[in-house]
Design a protein that fits this description.
The protein is built from eleven helices and ten strands. The protein has 326 residues and is α/β, with parallel strands linked by helices.
Length: 326
Amino acid sequence: MRSTDKLGVSGLLVLAAILSQPQMSAAAEYPEHAVRIIVNVTPGGGVDTTTRIVAQELEKRLGQPFVVENRPSASGNVGAGAVFHATPDGYTLLSSSGSPLAIDGWIYKNLSYEPTGFQPVAVMSRIPNVLVVRSNFPAKTVKEFVEYAKSHPEKLTFASQGAGTASHLTAALFMMLTGTKMVHVPYKGTGPALNDLAGGNVDCSFLPIASTYGLAKAGRVRILAVATDKRVDSLPDVPTLVETGYPEMISSTWNAISAPPNTPTAVLTKLNKSIDEILHEKSVQDRLRGLNMDAVGGSLTETKSVIEKERQQWGKVVHAAKIEAH
């Protein structure tokens, strides 16, 4: 007779209840002390800003400090690796763009972590990317930009948030679709890339609208197009790249909270529920919208689905653009 037959249905239910008690207890007591959120990019960009908004609200809801720590290095892989190998108890979390979760596995051969091994907690916000150029760039439209790039092959420079980031791969997709060739200049995050663009040290970039909007309004950079399928409310006169003849040019930067492998499901669920509720608060949505970000949220299952879809999308771009892993 099988062991399950000996236990019977009631015995199995009792056993399942006993096994689930440690996780239920962990969730009920979590958090008992400060939680550290490692942001794997520099301060000032969309990831950092969103994280600080959510961390502040988590402190109110869960009664413990949620301490934000920026750790930018090696395209964000140092911070991601630190969280991946941290104790899986919910007290060390990763806040990042999609790069370590959906892109870096296609780009890097020897990562200190397994991108698909993270436990996704929640996608916090999504920010449309825009094609932005230095203020004195000669082209005023996307058509003129493409013509200028074609007539100056490998002369134009494009800044990115780092190798393998959404800004890098969006530019790679753009070059592939337009038949242009530009020189990649990677930075350690959105802030440094945008500073050099505003300073005229690089020609262009694909960066989040949340980071570029203020500088564009001040005339320090110019936004030529938005990488969305419809125009955004804050830039009604700026065309989309779809409008200008590139239907595949849809790109956004999204920010997610993740946990180390083997973090208890009950802890993940408690964090996810809290963050999802925060992102559905009107005050938080209004605050993010004012920064040109859209709140996302969703269940653990929905979060995993979003990340996997992004992983497949950018994997195709890496292969099609023949970006070599290194």
